[in-house]
Amino acid sequence: MQITREADYAIRCVLHLSRCKEGSATVGDIAEAQSIPRTFAAKILQKLSKAKIVKSVRGIKGGFRLARDPARISILDVIEAIQGPLNVNICVLDRQSCERQPTCMVHPIWVEIQILLKERLAYYTFDKFNDKKGSL
Amino acid sequence: MQITREADYAIRCVLHLSRCKEGSATVGDIAEAQSIPRTFAAKILQKLSKAKIVKSVRGIKGGFRLARDPARISILDVIEAIQGPLNVNICVLDRQSCERQPTCMVHPIWVEIQILLKERLAYYTFDKFNDKKGSL
DNA sequence: CCTTTTAGGAGTAATTTTATCCTATTTTAA
DNA sequence: TTAAAATAGGATAAAATTACTCCTAAAAGG
Fold this sequence. Notes:
Two copies of one chain form a homodimer.
Chain A: H1 5-19, E1 24-25, H2 27-34, H3 38-50, E2 54-57, E3 63-66, H4 75-83, H5 90-93, H6 96-99, H7 107-123
Antiparallel strand pairs in A: 1-3, 2-3
Helix pairs in contact in A: 1-2, 1-3, 1-4, 2-3
The structure holds a DNA duplex (30 and 30 nucleotides).
Protein backbone atom coordinates (compact mmCIF):
# COMPACT_ATOMS: atom_id res chain seq x y z
CA MET A 1 0.00 0.00 0.00
CA GLN A 2 3.02 2.23 -0.42
CA ILE A 3 4.40 3.96 -3.49
CA THR A 4 7.93 2.91 -4.37
CA ARG A 5 10.95 5.02 -3.73
CA GLU A 6 11.42 5.19 -7.48
CA ALA A 7 7.99 6.82 -7.88
CA ASP A 8 8.75 9.21 -5.05
CA TYR A 9 12.01 10.16 -6.79
CA ALA A 10 10.12 10.63 -10.05
CA ILE A 11 7.72 13.05 -8.42
CA ARG A 12 10.65 15.01 -7.04
CA CYS A 13 12.23 15.12 -10.51
CA VAL A 14 9.08 16.57 -12.05
CA LEU A 15 8.68 18.94 -9.12
CA HIS A 16 12.24 20.15 -9.63
CA LEU A 17 11.69 20.78 -13.34
CA SER A 18 8.41 22.55 -12.71
CA ARG A 19 10.09 24.93 -10.31
CA CYS A 20 13.52 25.60 -11.79
CA LYS A 21 13.91 29.01 -13.30
CA GLU A 22 15.77 27.94 -16.44
CA GLY A 23 12.98 25.54 -17.34
CA SER A 24 15.44 22.71 -17.82
CA ALA A 25 18.09 20.89 -15.85
CA THR A 26 20.58 18.05 -16.28
CA VAL A 27 20.39 14.69 -14.56
CA GLY A 28 23.28 15.81 -12.37
CA ASP A 29 21.51 18.95 -11.23
CA ILE A 30 18.28 17.16 -10.46
CA ALA A 31 19.96 14.22 -8.74
CA GLU A 32 22.02 16.44 -6.49
CA ALA A 33 19.24 18.87 -5.64
CA GLN A 34 16.78 16.12 -4.85
CA SER A 35 19.19 13.65 -3.22
CA ILE A 36 18.62 10.90 -5.75
CA PRO A 37 21.41 8.53 -6.79
CA ARG A 38 22.58 9.93 -10.11
CA THR A 39 22.38 6.86 -12.33
CA PHE A 40 19.02 5.97 -10.86
CA ALA A 41 17.72 9.46 -11.58
CA ALA A 42 18.88 9.03 -15.19
CA LYS A 43 16.82 5.86 -15.53
CA ILE A 44 13.80 7.49 -13.97
CA LEU A 45 14.01 10.46 -16.31
CA GLN A 46 14.19 8.04 -19.22
CA LYS A 47 10.92 6.47 -18.10
CA LEU A 48 9.33 9.90 -17.72
CA SER A 49 10.56 10.75 -21.18
CA LYS A 50 8.97 7.65 -22.70
CA ALA A 51 5.74 8.53 -20.92
CA LYS A 52 5.88 11.98 -22.55
CA ILE A 53 5.94 13.74 -19.22
CA VAL A 54 9.41 15.08 -19.80
CA LYS A 55 11.43 15.94 -22.89
CA SER A 56 15.14 15.29 -23.25
CA VAL A 57 17.76 17.23 -25.12
CA ARG A 58 21.05 15.50 -25.85
CA GLY A 59 24.46 17.01 -26.12
CA ILE A 60 26.51 19.54 -24.33
CA LYS A 61 23.79 22.05 -23.57
CA GLY A 62 21.21 19.32 -23.04
CA GLY A 63 19.11 18.17 -20.12
CA PHE A 64 15.45 17.66 -19.32
CA ARG A 65 12.39 19.89 -19.27
CA LEU A 66 8.68 19.26 -18.83
CA ALA A 67 6.89 18.09 -21.96
CA ARG A 68 3.77 20.09 -21.10
CA ASP A 69 2.31 22.58 -18.70
CA PRO A 70 2.63 21.62 -15.01
CA ALA A 71 -1.13 22.05 -14.71
CA ARG A 72 -1.51 19.11 -17.05
CA ILE A 73 0.79 16.73 -15.17
CA SER A 74 -0.63 15.02 -12.11
CA ILE A 75 0.94 12.97 -9.37
CA LEU A 76 -1.02 10.03 -10.76
CA ASP A 77 0.51 10.52 -14.21
CA VAL A 78 3.98 10.33 -12.73
CA ILE A 79 3.27 7.33 -10.51
CA GLU A 80 1.73 5.39 -13.40
CA ALA A 81 4.61 6.32 -15.70
CA ILE A 82 6.94 4.62 -13.23
CA GLN A 83 4.93 1.80 -11.71
CA GLY A 84 2.39 1.08 -14.42
CA PRO A 85 -1.36 1.28 -13.85
CA LEU A 86 -2.25 1.79 -10.21
CA ASN A 87 -4.19 -0.99 -8.59
CA VAL A 88 -4.90 -1.50 -4.94
CA ASN A 89 -5.47 -5.25 -5.10
CA ILE A 90 -4.52 -7.90 -7.60
CA CYS A 91 -8.18 -8.67 -8.33
CA VAL A 92 -9.01 -5.16 -9.51
CA LEU A 93 -6.85 -5.27 -12.62
CA ASP A 94 -6.55 -9.03 -13.06
CA ARG A 95 -10.21 -9.95 -12.78
CA GLN A 96 -9.45 -13.65 -13.30
CA SER A 97 -7.89 -13.96 -9.87
CA CYS A 98 -11.23 -13.13 -8.28
CA GLU A 99 -13.59 -15.10 -10.46
CA ARG A 100 -13.13 -18.56 -9.03
CA GLN A 101 -15.55 -17.39 -6.36
CA PRO A 102 -18.84 -16.58 -8.09
CA THR A 103 -19.33 -13.47 -6.00
CA CYS A 104 -16.46 -12.03 -4.04
CA MET A 105 -18.02 -9.72 -1.49
CA VAL A 106 -14.92 -7.59 -1.12
CA HIS A 107 -14.18 -6.89 -4.76
CA PRO A 108 -16.50 -3.86 -5.11
CA ILE A 109 -14.73 -2.22 -2.22
CA TRP A 110 -11.35 -2.43 -3.93
CA VAL A 111 -12.83 -0.98 -7.06
CA GLU A 112 -14.32 1.89 -5.09
CA ILE A 113 -11.15 2.58 -3.15
CA GLN A 114 -9.06 2.50 -6.29
CA ILE A 115 -11.30 5.07 -7.97
CA LEU A 116 -11.17 7.27 -4.89
CA LEU A 117 -7.40 7.09 -4.77
CA LYS A 118 -6.87 7.72 -8.47
CA GLU A 119 -9.23 10.69 -8.44
CA ARG A 120 -7.35 12.27 -5.60
CA LEU A 121 -3.92 11.63 -7.12
CA ALA A 122 -5.13 12.99 -10.46
CA TYR A 123 -6.42 16.11 -8.72
CA TYR A 124 -2.95 17.13 -7.60
CA THR A 125 -1.19 18.65 -10.58
CA PHE A 126 2.23 20.26 -10.49
CA ASP A 127 0.94 23.80 -10.78
CA LYS A 128 -0.36 23.37 -7.23
CA PHE A 129 3.13 23.25 -5.73
CA ASN A 130 4.14 26.87 -5.46
CA ASP A 131 6.15 28.74 -2.89
CA LYS A 132 3.14 30.51 -1.50
CA LYS A 133 2.96 29.41 2.10
CA GLY A 134 -0.39 28.05 3.10
CA SER A 135 -1.45 27.16 -0.40
CA LEU A 136 -1.60 23.56 0.77
CA MET B 1 0.25 0.85 -3.82
CA GLN B 2 -1.17 -2.64 -3.60
CA ILE B 3 -2.12 -4.71 -0.58
CA THR B 4 -0.18 -7.94 -0.29
CA ARG B 5 -1.61 -11.32 -1.10
CA GLU B 6 -1.15 -12.18 2.56
CA ALA B 7 -3.44 -9.31 3.58
CA ASP B 8 -5.96 -10.34 0.95
CA TYR B 9 -5.90 -13.88 2.34
CA ALA B 10 -6.34 -12.51 5.84
CA ILE B 11 -9.44 -10.60 4.81
CA ARG B 12 -10.85 -13.77 3.28
CA CYS B 13 -10.13 -15.67 6.50
CA VAL B 14 -12.03 -13.15 8.59
CA LEU B 15 -14.81 -13.04 6.02
CA HIS B 16 -15.10 -16.81 6.18
CA LEU B 17 -15.32 -16.81 9.96
CA SER B 18 -17.86 -14.01 9.98
CA ARG B 19 -20.10 -15.96 7.64
CA CYS B 20 -19.76 -19.58 8.72
CA LYS B 21 -22.77 -20.94 10.55
CA GLU B 22 -20.87 -22.80 13.29
CA GLY B 23 -19.08 -19.61 14.25
CA SER B 24 -15.72 -21.36 14.12
CA ALA B 25 -13.62 -23.28 11.62
CA THR B 26 -10.27 -25.04 11.40
CA VAL B 27 -7.31 -23.85 9.36
CA GLY B 28 -8.03 -26.69 6.97
CA ASP B 29 -11.63 -25.64 6.42
CA ILE B 30 -10.73 -22.00 5.87
CA ALA B 31 -7.76 -22.74 3.63
CA GLU B 32 -9.76 -25.05 1.40
CA ALA B 33 -12.83 -22.84 1.19
CA GLN B 34 -10.82 -19.73 0.43
CA SER B 35 -8.12 -21.30 -1.77
CA ILE B 36 -5.27 -20.33 0.52
CA PRO B 37 -2.19 -22.56 0.94
CA ARG B 38 -2.83 -24.39 4.19
CA THR B 39 0.39 -23.65 6.07
CA PHE B 40 0.27 -20.04 4.97
CA ALA B 41 -3.28 -19.72 6.24
CA ALA B 42 -2.11 -21.10 9.58
CA LYS B 43 0.52 -18.37 9.84
CA ILE B 44 -1.95 -15.69 8.88
CA LEU B 45 -4.44 -16.86 11.49
CA GLN B 46 -1.66 -16.75 14.07
CA LYS B 47 -1.06 -13.09 13.23
CA LEU B 48 -4.77 -12.35 13.40
CA SER B 49 -4.85 -14.09 16.75
CA LYS B 50 -2.02 -11.97 18.13
CA ALA B 51 -3.86 -8.88 16.90
CA LYS B 52 -6.92 -10.03 18.87
CA ILE B 53 -9.07 -10.15 15.76
CA VAL B 54 -9.47 -13.90 16.02
CA LYS B 55 -9.41 -16.37 18.88
CA SER B 56 -7.87 -19.81 18.67
CA VAL B 57 -8.88 -23.00 20.40
CA ARG B 58 -6.34 -25.79 20.48
CA GLY B 59 -6.95 -29.50 20.51
CA ILE B 60 -9.09 -31.91 18.64
CA LYS B 61 -12.27 -29.84 18.61
CA GLY B 62 -10.34 -26.63 18.11
CA GLY B 63 -10.15 -24.02 15.40
CA PHE B 64 -10.62 -20.29 15.06
CA ARG B 65 -13.47 -17.87 15.63
CA LEU B 66 -13.79 -14.11 15.62
CA ALA B 67 -12.65 -12.41 18.80
CA ARG B 68 -15.40 -9.80 18.58
CA ASP B 69 -18.47 -8.74 16.66
CA PRO B 70 -17.95 -8.45 12.89
CA ALA B 71 -19.28 -4.90 13.13
CA ARG B 72 -16.23 -4.07 15.19
CA ILE B 73 -13.67 -5.51 12.77
CA SER B 74 -12.75 -3.41 9.76
CA ILE B 75 -10.79 -4.14 6.62
CA LEU B 76 -8.20 -1.68 7.95
CA ASP B 77 -7.86 -3.65 11.20
CA VAL B 78 -7.09 -6.79 9.26
CA ILE B 79 -4.66 -5.14 6.85
CA GLU B 80 -2.74 -3.49 9.69
CA ALA B 81 -2.67 -6.74 11.67
CA ILE B 82 -0.84 -8.32 8.75
CA GLN B 83 1.21 -5.53 7.23
CA GLY B 84 1.70 -3.19 10.15
CA PRO B 85 0.57 0.45 10.12
CA LEU B 86 -0.62 1.54 6.71
CA ASN B 87 1.41 4.27 5.07
CA VAL B 88 1.26 5.42 1.50
CA ASN B 89 4.77 6.85 1.34
CA ILE B 90 7.88 6.32 3.42
CA CYS B 91 7.89 9.95 4.55
CA VAL B 92 4.46 9.79 6.19
CA LEU B 93 5.44 7.41 8.96
CA ASP B 94 9.20 7.99 8.98
CA ARG B 95 9.25 11.76 9.11
CA GLN B 96 13.06 11.85 9.13
CA SER B 97 13.25 10.78 5.50
CA CYS B 98 11.49 13.97 4.48
CA GLU B 99 13.13 16.50 6.74
CA ARG B 100 16.40 17.01 4.92
CA GLN B 101 14.42 19.36 2.70
CA PRO B 102 13.10 22.16 4.90
CA THR B 103 9.72 22.12 3.22
CA CYS B 104 8.71 19.23 1.07
CA MET B 105 5.78 20.43 -0.97
CA VAL B 106 4.37 16.97 -1.54
CA HIS B 107 4.35 15.71 2.03
CA PRO B 108 0.95 17.17 2.99
CA ILE B 109 -0.63 15.37 0.07
CA TRP B 110 0.57 11.99 1.27
CA VAL B 111 -0.76 12.74 4.72
CA GLU B 112 -4.14 13.70 3.27
CA ILE B 113 -4.34 10.66 1.01
CA GLN B 114 -3.37 8.35 3.82
CA ILE B 115 -6.13 9.71 6.04
CA LEU B 116 -8.64 9.38 3.22
CA LEU B 117 -7.62 5.79 2.58
CA LYS B 118 -7.61 4.75 6.22
CA GLU B 119 -11.01 6.31 6.82
CA ARG B 120 -12.51 4.41 3.94
CA LEU B 121 -10.90 1.11 4.91
CA ALA B 122 -12.03 1.60 8.50
CA TYR B 123 -15.57 2.26 7.32
CA TYR B 124 -15.92 -1.21 5.85
CA THR B 125 -16.58 -3.59 8.72
CA PHE B 126 -17.37 -7.28 8.36
CA ASP B 127 -21.04 -6.92 9.19
CA LYS B 128 -21.40 -5.19 5.82
CA PHE B 129 -20.68 -8.36 3.86
CA ASN B 130 -24.00 -10.16 3.84
CA ASP B 131 -25.73 -12.27 1.22
CA LYS B 132 -28.26 -9.60 0.42
CA LYS B 133 -27.75 -8.79 -3.20
CA GLY B 134 -27.29 -5.13 -3.85
CA SER B 135 -26.21 -4.28 -0.36
CA LEU B 136 -22.98 -3.10 -1.87
C1' DC C 1 37.16 15.71 -32.95
C1' DC C 2 36.67 16.36 -28.15
C1' DT C 3 33.65 17.12 -24.38
C1' DT C 4 29.27 16.93 -22.32
C1' DT C 5 25.12 15.07 -22.19
C1' DT C 6 21.24 11.52 -22.78
C1' DA C 7 19.85 6.32 -24.50
C1' DG C 8 19.58 1.77 -23.68
C1' DG C 9 20.75 -2.89 -22.34
C1' DA C 10 22.56 -5.86 -18.90
C1' DG C 11 23.53 -7.03 -14.49
C1' DT C 12 23.46 -7.09 -9.27
C1' DA C 13 22.61 -6.57 -4.31
C1' DA C 14 19.20 -6.12 -0.92
C1' DT C 15 14.73 -6.57 0.58
C1' DT C 16 10.18 -8.23 0.65
C1' DT C 17 6.82 -11.53 -0.47
C1' DT C 18 5.10 -15.96 -0.41
C1' DA C 19 5.33 -19.46 1.20
C1' DT C 20 7.09 -24.59 3.48
C1' DC C 21 8.87 -27.69 7.15
C1' DC C 22 9.62 -29.34 11.53
C1' DT C 23 9.03 -29.78 16.31
C1' DA C 24 6.34 -28.48 20.32
C1' DT C 25 2.02 -28.06 23.00
C1' DT C 26 -2.85 -28.39 23.87
C1' DT C 27 -7.22 -30.79 23.96
C1' DT C 28 -10.52 -34.54 23.46
C1' DA C 29 -11.98 -39.09 23.27
C1' DA C 30 -11.32 -43.96 23.20
C1' DT D 1 -2.72 -43.36 29.32
C1' DT D 2 -2.38 -42.94 24.83
C1' DA D 3 -3.56 -41.74 20.11
C1' DA D 4 -5.43 -38.35 17.14
C1' DA D 5 -6.40 -33.78 15.79
C1' DA D 6 -5.63 -29.32 16.21
C1' DT D 7 -2.88 -24.77 16.95
C1' DA D 8 2.08 -22.34 18.22
C1' DG D 9 6.28 -20.94 16.89
C1' DG D 10 10.86 -20.91 14.90
C1' DA D 11 13.71 -21.63 10.98
C1' DT D 12 14.34 -21.75 6.32
C1' DA D 13 13.85 -21.15 1.29
C1' DA D 14 12.29 -19.90 -3.33
C1' DA D 15 10.59 -16.26 -6.10
C1' DA D 16 9.67 -11.66 -7.08
C1' DT D 17 10.40 -6.96 -6.62
C1' DT D 18 13.01 -2.98 -5.50
C1' DA D 19 16.74 -0.16 -5.78
C1' DC D 20 20.13 0.47 -7.67
C1' DT D 21 25.14 0.28 -10.89
C1' DC D 22 27.93 -0.28 -15.11
C1' DC D 23 29.11 -0.04 -19.70
C1' DT D 24 28.90 1.21 -24.38
C1' DA D 25 26.59 3.94 -27.85
C1' DA D 26 24.74 8.06 -29.88
C1' DA D 27 23.80 12.95 -30.24
C1' DA D 28 24.98 17.92 -30.04
C1' DG D 29 27.90 21.98 -29.59
C1' DG D 30 32.26 24.38 -29.77
